[in-house]
Amino acid sequence: MRPRLIRRRPVYRSRNFILVRDVLQMGKRRIERDTILHPGAVVIIPVLSDQRLVFVRQYRRAVDRMLLELPAGTLEPGEGKQACARRELEEETGWRAKHWKRVGAFFAAPGVSSEEMTLFLATGLTEAVACPEPDELLKPVILSLPEALAKVRSGVICDAKTIIGVFLARELLKK
Known about the structure:
The chain is α+β, with helices and mostly antiparallel strands. The chain folds into two domains: 4-37; 41-174, Nucleoside Triphosphate Pyrophosphohydrolase. The chain is 22% helix and 46% strand. The protein has three helices and ten strands. The chain has helices at 81-93, 145-154, 160-174, and strands at 4-13, 18-26, 29-37, 41-46, 53-60, 65-69, 72-74, 95-107, 116-127, 138-143. The strands form three sheets. It has a four-stranded mixed beta sheet, with helices on both faces. The protein has a three-stranded antiparallel beta sheet with strand order 1-2-3, with no helix packed on it. Strands 6-5-10 form a three-stranded antiparallel beta sheet. Helix 2 (145-154) packs antiparallel against helix 3 (160-174).
């Protein structure tokens, strides 16, 4: 039996998400749950003509460290997913892609957030000019697929969206 929403109250609003407190009816019990409502995000798997992948080394405040990640970003209001992917790829890496293919989607942390991340394979890359957001501290990094897989295995690449993207890239580039 699915819980029924009784009441939802915004607790906090940020630029990218809303934290809400929900009161749910579960059978005879009422429970409260806090949830992050997120507009969704994209993850880009940028593949150069020699099958090397473009990553970004980016500072992440939540873990207070630099992480090696695939480029990604949050959808703006009214923005399509592929448009967001195009924007984020160029902003973060300085590359543009001629060919785009949606290759999957997943929920980032469904226990606490509604954020759905959609993955795109980007090929036919040409150089452009990177223009990261003022609050982004990042640097593009190019790795071969075997190098990326080794970094996943060693724990250097440790965020879920990038691990998923690297393993998807391995499957997609076999074909």
